[in-house]
């Protein structure tokens, strides 16, 4: 993202769906060229990329929307271009991307990976110059605009990403945007498939009657979907009859159809120990951060989420999160 500042103090609305890919880029360099070219195929493949110009909601706090998009994305794409390091926004996003621990795909677009690796004042390069200029910026009170810790975090983030295997436009691709685009899209597809596999839960091989039970469950759920309401479905029965196995199989088959999903296990036992800890685990599992009950309620009400609460005791006629 590249903006001059947020014009509203209004809290950002909860993004209606989690994003698959967050695109970190410098607007003047790539927004109307490579970033836009990459956005289209990712959108067509159903990966829901976040490109600020397409996704930001007018009238709400931009930084809040950016933070939520970064935290919810499964894969990050960082497009490093000649004036990238002139932007505080780009650098702040990069720091957040590394903190999220999601995979990052670096794209060196008309810059050399060495420009990111060596950014101290004694070296030469386009990013050294940009960071030195940021370091010299002053506030109206003639105080440094960016403190030494912030500058050090930016330099460290750039150096860290320089050591991640990425795509160099001027190297292997000989300046051909088309070849670079194809390679990046392919890599995103590989990472998204890998992330989906990691979300798969272990289910006992060839359990008796599991396919029939799963298909029956799916039929019952599909019959209710036209109502457009939150669906709460209970799987009940005596201990040891296979409720958790059925729930895991349903999760494995259906989670990819939702923008966000989570399987919260051992709910009854964890609730007995600490409800706050259970809530924190749910927040981190769904939204990658523990931000409190207000965010949880907003996220559950406005996002298309597939949530399974395993081993949950309920009062007759009442299910969790329906109140």
Key attributes of the depicted protein:
disordered C terminus, 5-stranded parallel beta sheet, 323 residues, alpha/beta, disordered N terminus, two-stranded parallel ribbon, 7 strands
Structure explained in plain terms:
With 323 residues, the chain is of the alpha/beta class. The relative contact order is 0.10. The N terminus and C terminus are likely disordered. It is elongated and about 70 Å long. The strands form two sheets. The chain has a five-stranded parallel β-sheet with strand order 2-1-3-4-5, sandwiched between helices. It has 14 helices and seven strands. β3, α5 and β4 form a beta-alpha-beta unit.
What's this, in brief?
The protein is α/β, with parallel strands linked by helices. It is built from 14 helices and seven strands. Strands 2-1-3-4-5 form a five-stranded parallel beta sheet, sandwiched between helices.
How is the main sheet built?
A: 5 strands, parallel
Give the CA-based shape: elongated
Strand order within the widest beta sheet? 2-1-3-4-5
Mean pLDDT: 79
Oligomer: single chain
- Listing every helix as H and every strand as E from the N terminus to the C terminus, the arrangement reads EHHEHHEHEHHHEHHHEHHHE
Counting DSSP H or I runs of 4 or more residues, the number of helices is 14
Helix/strand structural class: alpha/beta
| Low-pLDDT windows of residues | 2-17, 316-323
Distance between the termini: 38 Å
């Amino acid at each position: 993202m590249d903006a001059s500042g947020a014009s509203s103090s209004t809290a950002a609305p909860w993004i209606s769906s989690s994003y698959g890919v967050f695109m970190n880029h410098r607007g003047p360099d790539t927004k109307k060229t490579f970033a836009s070219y990459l956005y289209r195929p990712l959108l067509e493949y159903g990966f829901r990329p976040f490109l600020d110009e397409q996704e930001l909601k007018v009238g709400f706090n931009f930084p809040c929307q950016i933070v939520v998009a970064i935290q919810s994305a499964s894969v990050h794409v960082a497009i490093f271009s000649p004036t990238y390091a002139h932007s505080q926004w780009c650098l702040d996003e990069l720091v957040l991307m590394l903190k999220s621990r999601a995979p990052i795909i670096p794209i060196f677009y008309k810059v050399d990976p060495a420009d990111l690796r060596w950014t101290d004042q004694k070296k030469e390069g386009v990013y050294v110059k940009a960071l030195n200029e940021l370091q010299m910026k002053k506030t109206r009170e003639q105080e440094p605009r960016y403190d030494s810790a912030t500058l050090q975090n930016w330099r460290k983030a750039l150096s860290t990403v320089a050591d991640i295997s990425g795509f160099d436009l001027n190297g292997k691709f000989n300046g051909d945007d088309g070849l670079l685009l194809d390679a990046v899209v392919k890599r995103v597809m590989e990472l998204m498939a890998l992330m989906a596999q990691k979300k798969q839960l272990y289910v006992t091989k060839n359990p008796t009657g599991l396919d029939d039970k799963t298909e029956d469950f799916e039929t019952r759920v599909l019959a209710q979907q036209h109502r457009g309401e939150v669906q709460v479905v209970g799987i009940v029965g005596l201990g040891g009859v296979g409720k958790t196995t059925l729930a895991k199989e349903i999760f494995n088959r259906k989670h990819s159809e939702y923008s966000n999903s989570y399987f919260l296990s051992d709910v009854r036992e964890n609730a007995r120990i600490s409800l706050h800890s259970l809530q924190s685990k749910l927040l981190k599992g769904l939204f990658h951060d523990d931000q409190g009950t207000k965010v949880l309620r907003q996220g559950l009400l406005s996002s298309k989420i597939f949530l399974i609460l395993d081993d949950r005791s309920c009062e007759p006629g009442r299910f969790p999160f329906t109140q």
